[in-house]
Design brief:
About 5% of the residues lie in helices and about 45% in strands. By secondary structure, it is mainly beta. The termini are far apart. The chain is globular and about 40 Å long. The mean pLDDT is about 95.
């Protein structure tokens, strides 16, 4: 079973940048598509973006397209989320997740309906105005 640990969260001013990391245990990291999600206070978890096993393709939610970039380093078992032009509405706990199938990550709607099983513990990002 893959285990995930996010890091890199913190407090940043509006307009600033942060890079989150998600380190995975296990030797089969490159067998999984990776996704990033977030949950703002009082809201449900939402899909932000995902990356294919090889890192060759990425997909983003409209709310972050053009500002956030996902990348991965399979040699380091790590996936990254570069966040630029941050705004107060980006304040949330950010989670990474894995799934053998990219589609499962991309079609995420709610925790209740998803089949994604492996999540990190989350890292808090707070954007001040």
């Amino acid at each position: 079973q893959v285990q995930l640990v996010e890091s890199g969260g913190g407090l940043v001013q509006a307009g600033g940048s942060l890079r989150l990391s998600c380190a995975a245990s296990g030797r089969t990291f490159s067998s999984y598509a990776m996704g990033w999600f977030r949950q703002a206070p009082g809201k449900e978890r939402e899909f932000i973006g995902a990356i294919t096993r090889s890192g060759g393709s990425t997909y983003y939610a409209d709310s972050v397209k053009g500002r956030f970039t996902i990348s991965r380093d399979n040699a380091k078992n790590t996936v990254y989320l570069q966040m630029n032009s941050l705004a107060p509405e980006d304040t949330a706990v950010y989670y990474c997740a894995v799934d053998p199938t990219l589609h499962t990550l991309v079609v995420f709607t709610t925790d209740k309906d998803t089949t994604v099983e492996v999540w990190g513990q989350g890292t808090l990002v707070t954007v001040s105005s």
